[in-house]
From TrEMBL:
Official protein name in the record: CoA transferase
Alphabetized SUPFAM superfamilies for the sequence: CoA-transferase family III (CaiB/BaiF)
Lineage: Bacteria, Pseudomonadati, Thermodesulfobacteriota, Desulfobulbia, Desulfobulbales
Top-rank taxon, per record: Bacteria
Keyword Transferase applies: yes
GO molecular function terms noted in the UniProt entry: CoA-transferase activity
Amino acid sequence: MSDHNSDAVVQSLPLSGIRVLELGHNIMGPACGLILADLGAEVYKIERPGKGDDTRWLEGFGAGFFTCFNRNKKSLGIDLKQERGKELLLRLVEQVDVLIENFAPGTVERLGIGSEVCRLRNPQLIFCSLKGFMPGPYAHRLALDEVVQMMGGLAYMTGPSGRPMRAGASVTDILSGSFGVIGILTALLERRRTGRGQEVQATLFESVAFLMAQHMAGAGVTGDAPPPMPEREKTWAVYELFGTSDGHQVFIGITSDRHWQRFCKVFGFSDWAEDPRLATNEGRVAAGLWFFTELKRRLLQLTKNELITMAEQAQIPFAPVNQPIDLWDDPHLNQSHGLVSTTTMTGDVVRLPKLPLRLQGHSFPLRIQPPSVGQGGGDLLSLIRLTVEEMDELTTAGIVDFLPSPPRHE
């Protein structure tokens, strides 16, 4: 496998030969499908004929959702509200390994395409249901990333007291989709042993609860409720943001006394290197305001580039405060080939991160740009041997929407 595409590369991808129907919208379902697609599965996004997934047309915060989460997929438009559309989907279910859905609670059952129905048609099917909550008192509730961040404690831990704040990305949607992938891969492995598929469930609320486990464990050990992260007790004397002379901010974290000695040497703070009051982290914490005020003053004399150059030389943890768009020019992401050029719904090109995963040193390439509605759907329909007349009739009736396969990305 390599980052240069060829038929041999596609065949060598780990999930090559696995066929997936994705009844996904917004982020959680599409994120699950994206990971499987990047790993080599043949993923077909099932959308409404004509308009397609709503995320194709979102503006503002959601403007990039479709571009971000739908590469390496094909599309097929099917009107699932019509009986013939539902029956067509069930015929397709017989030809695939995995079905992903993240519709509202009860929707797939109401449409007649729930787990039990689909797995009767294909006992080897892995049916992955992505919801807000596991079965229980909340199972009927509608959920959003922001909803579960609030009720699960993540927003409380992120903002200062009295100002709960959602995380700056759709972390629970993406995490839940990732857990869906873990469940799907586990079920595929078990299918090798049993010959049968099963239902996989992954959820938003329980994913947030899993993230909160470290704080729950801490409370169990100390007996104290954890404060929000901006107000957490100081463990390290130097673990803060520092301003620079050119108006930027850089985080510096000194978490060992060896860090401290290297820091003092490279930054020319010989007076502090020889000061016994500052020789240990405990001493630096005890030094309190006078030390921290003077440290901020000294570092403020440096530009951002000077500060990060010296911090790297000192081999201490550091990070400039970047915006997401700064990642386009990040030297590490570019030199390590961590970004792929992806075509947006408007025809523009944006470079987006690959999966943060490598096997044998190889990452996973972009093979197919995010599809137009129905693009590539004919490949799937060919598996159930529809006649030309049937396909024309279904298209004319607005039940099916498909186009030729998208070109392979070279």
